Amino acid sequence: MKPLPQFLFAQAFIVCALGRLVQSFSTFQWPNPLLNYADRQLYEGPVDILAEGCPPRNDSTIPAQWLRIAYHDMSTHNVDDGTGGLDASIQYELDRSQNVGEGMLASLNDFNGFQIISPFFGMADVIALGAIMAVAGCGGPFIPFSAGRVDATEAGPPTVPEPQQDLASHAESFRRQGFTPTEMIALVACGHTLGGVRQVDFPLVVTDSATVLQTFDTTPAFDTAVVSEYLQNTTQNPLVVGPNVTTRSDFRIFSSDGNATMQSLLSPANFNQTCSSLFERMLNTVPSNVNLTDPITEPFEYLVMNDNPSRTVTLLWADRQGLFCPPSGCSQPSNSTENVFFTIIGQMQEVTATRYPFNATINATSSISKFWFEINENDGSEPITVDNGGAGFVIDQDSVFVDVVRTERIVAHSGPVSEEFMKLVVRENSASSGASVASFTPSLNANPPFTPTINTTDLQLDASNPPDGKFAFFTANISFSATFLDLTISSANSTITQKNFDLTAVNLPFIFTSL
Ligand code: HEM
Ligand SMILES: *[C@@H]1O[C@H](CO)[C@@H](O)[C@H](O)[C@H]1NC(C)=O
Ligand SMILES: *[C@@H]1O[C@H](CO)[C@@H](O)[C@H](O)[C@H]1NC(C)=O
Ligand SMILES: *[C@@H]1O[C@H](CO)[C@@H](O)[C@H](O)[C@H]1NC(C)=O
Ligand SMILES: *[C@@H]1O[C@H](CO)[C@@H](O)[C@H](O)[C@H]1NC(C)=O
Ligand SMILES: *[C@@H]1O[C@H](CO)[C@@H](O)[C@H](O)[C@H]1NC(C)=O
Ligand SMILES: *[C@@H]1O[C@H](CO)[C@@H](O)[C@H](O)[C@H]1NC(C)=O
Ligand SMILES: *[C@@H]1O[C@H](CO)[C@@H](O)[C@H](O)[C@H]1NC(C)=O
Ligand SMILES: *[C@@H]1O[C@H](CO)[C@@H](O)[C@H](O)[C@H]1NC(C)=O
Ligand SMILES: *[C@@H]1O[C@H](CO)[C@@H](O)[C@H](O)[C@H]1NC(C)=O
Ligand SMILES: *[C@@H]1O[C@H](CO)[C@@H](O)[C@H](O)[C@H]1NC(C)=O
Ligand SMILES: *[C@@H]1O[C@H](CO)[C@@H](O)[C@H](O)[C@H]1NC(C)=O
Ligand SMILES: *[C@@H]1O[C@H](CO)[C@@H](O)[C@H](O)[C@H]1NC(C)=O
C-alpha cells in the first residue's frame, strides 16, 4: 500500500501497489504513520542516490563518511545508565577533536538536504538509514531498518574511542556502548572496510604530507579485504602499520584474541552476516527511554502478487454511516498502472511492484468511513479482498482535511523579486468556530543543528471557494517547503485534530504567477 493520502473528497486519489515479493505483508496494520514512512524511505526514498555505486568524495567515499558518523553518534551510549546512543547529538559535537574530519559536516549536510526529516522521523533516523544505504551502496549486506529514534537537543559525553588509547580503554569504551571484546574486533573490521585516515586530520598517524587519505584496505568496496590484507601482513592500514606504534589501534584490537575473530571474518558469508547483525545493533543503540519499530526487512507497503497485466484492481468504500453504497457510487476501478522504482535495497532484494492509482468521486453528503480493494486476476480464480486484515482502511473523522485538489504551490514573480508559498485549502465541517494549522518545515539551514520549524497559523474562510454541502473551505498561506500538517478545528463542545498530513505523498498543482 502506498502512502494513502488521508482521503480527499471529490477526487480521491488512492494508490495501491502490487509486487512480486518473497514474504507477505500480513502483519502490517494501517494506519501506522511511522512504519509507513520508514518503509517508504527505505524502499522509495532519496537517500540511496548518494550511496549507490559507492561514489568517491575527497579521496574517500560518501558511504565511508556516512558509516563513520553513525558510529560516532552512537558512541555516546552508556549501557550502565541507559543514556545516549544514536540520537543525532553529533550535530552538537562537531568541534571535538574526536569528530575531526570534513566528512562529518558533509554527511549531515547530505542528510538534511534530502528534506525527509519529519515530525516522527528525525535526523537520527536519517543517520541510521544513511548507514544502511552506505553499506548496501558499496556492495555489503542488507541491514534491517528500525525507526523511531529521538533527536537530542544537546551534546552527549565525549566518548568516541581514539587511536592513541590503549586496548583496555577501547575494550571499556565498547563495553560501555554495549559490545563485548569479540564484538569490538568485528565492529572495527566491519567499519574499517570503508574509507581511511586523512593526513590533515591525523598527521601523527599518516605522516607523509603528500598523502591526502590512506585507505584501510586496497578496495573501496564493503568486503573482506580489510581482514585478508591484515592477516596476510600486506595491509597498508595506518592504524595497523602506521609509523607511530601508539596509534596502531586497529592492530591492538584485531590481534587482541590471537587473530581468532579476524580469521573467522575471512569468510565473506560470515563477514556479511556478522557485520549486518552488529551494525543493526549499533544503529539500534538508543537511550533506554526510546522505543524503536520492529525491524523492516521487506517492503510491506506493497501487496504480494505475481505480475499479471490482465489484473484489475477496484477501490470500494462505505459511506459515513458504514453502509456500502450502490455499486455505481462506491467503487472505482483503477484504469492505469505505474512502475514502482525501488532503491538499491529493493533492487538487492529483487522486488518489483506496480502501482494502481485511483481517481474516485465521493459524495460529500454521505461521505466515507472506510475503504478496501478487490483484486481480480481475471484468470478464473476467485477475486481477493484486501481489507487491512478485516477492519478495512478506516477514516476516523471527516470533519477536517486538506483539499489537495485546491491546495497549490505558488511561485510569484515580479521582476527580480520572487515569492514562494503554498496556498493551503482545507475543507471543514462548517459547524466549527475556529481552525488552525501547524505546519512542519524541515530545516533549510546551511549548517547544523538542523532543527525544523513548526509554525501555527489560523485558517481564514476562503473567499474563492464557496461552501459545498456541509463543508466550507478555509485557507492559509504556509511555507512552500512545508512537508507535514496538523489541522485542528474547535467547536463549542469538541476539538478535532487531523495529525501528520503528509504533503510529500501527494502531487500538488504548481502555479506560476506574477506578484
Ligand atoms: C577503537 C575504535 C576506533 C578507532 C580508534 C577509529 C579510528 C578511526 C580514525 C582515526 C579514522 C580516520 C578519520 C579521519 O581521517 O577523518 C577512522 C575512520 C573511519 N572509521 Fe573508525 N575507528 C574506530 C572504530 C570504528 C567503528 C566501530 C566503525 C564502524 C562503523 C568505524 C568506521 C570508520 C569509517 C567508515 C572510517 C572512514 C571514514 C572516511 O573515510 O571518511 N570506526 N576511524
Ligand atoms: C573536497 O573538500 C573540499 C573542502 O576541503 C571541498 O571544497 C570539495 O568540494 C570536496 N570535494 C568533493 C568532491 O566533495
Ligand atoms: C609483516 O610485515 C612487516 C613489514 O611489512 C615485517 O616487519 C613483519 O616482520 C611481518 N610480520 C610477519 C608476521 O610476517
Ligand atoms: C605518537 O602518537 C602519540 C599520540 O598521538 C604522540 O603523543 C606522540 O608524540 C607520537 N610520537 C611520534 C614520534 O610522533
Ligand atoms: C595476528 O596477525 C598479524 C598480521 O598477520 C600478525 O602480525 C600477528 O603476529 C598475529 N598475532 C597472533 C597472536 O597471531
Ligand atoms: C554479501 O552480501 C552481498 C550483498 O547482499 C552479496 O552481494 C554477496 O554475495 C554476499 N556474500 C556472501 C558470501 O554471502
Ligand atoms: C516504550 O514501550 C514501553 C513498553 O511498551 C512503554 O511502557 C513506554 O511508555 C514506551 N515509551 C515511549 C516513549 O513510547
Ligand atoms: C482513466 O480515467 C480518467 C477519468 O476517469 C480518464 O481521464 C483517463 O483518460 C483514463 N486513463 C486511461 C489510461 O484510460
Ligand atoms: C480525476 O477525475 C476528475 C473528473 O472525474 C478530473 O477532473 C481530474 O483531473 C482527475 N484527476 C486526476 C489526478 O486524474
Ligand atoms: C449524496 O448522498 C446523499 C445522502 O445519501 C443523497 O441524498 C444524494 O442523492 C447523493 N448525491 C449523489 C449525486 O449521488
Ligand atoms: C496569501 O498570499 C496572497 C499573496 O500575497 C494574498 O493575496 C492572500 O491574501 C494571502 N492569503 C491569506 C489567507 O493570508
Ligand atoms: C514561520 O513564521 C515566521 C513568523 O511569521 C516567519 O517569519 C517564518 O518565515 C515562518 N517559517 C516557516 C518555515 O514557515
Ligand atoms: C455539540 O453540541 C451540540 C449541541 O449540544 C450537538 O448537537 C452536537 O451533536 C455536539 N457535537 C458533538 C461533536 O458532540
TrEMBL record:
GO MF, one annotated term: metal ion binding
Statement: the UniProt record of this protein carries the keyword Ribonucleoprotein: no
Oxidoreductase recorded as keyword: yes
Cited InterPro entries: Ccp1-like (IPR044831), Haem_peroxidase (IPR002016), Haem_peroxidase_sf (IPR010255)
Domain Plant heme peroxidase family profile: 57-272
Signal peptide from the UniProt entry: 1-24
Superkingdom of this protein's organism: Eukaryota
Keywords: Heme, Iron, Metal-binding, Oxidoreductase, Peroxidase, Signal
Pfam assignment, any one: peroxidase
Protein family according to the UniProt entry: Belongs to the peroxidase family.
Protein name: Peroxidase
Native organism: Collybiopsis luxurians FD-317 M1
Classification lineage: Eukaryota, Fungi, Dikarya, Basidiomycota, Agaricomycotina
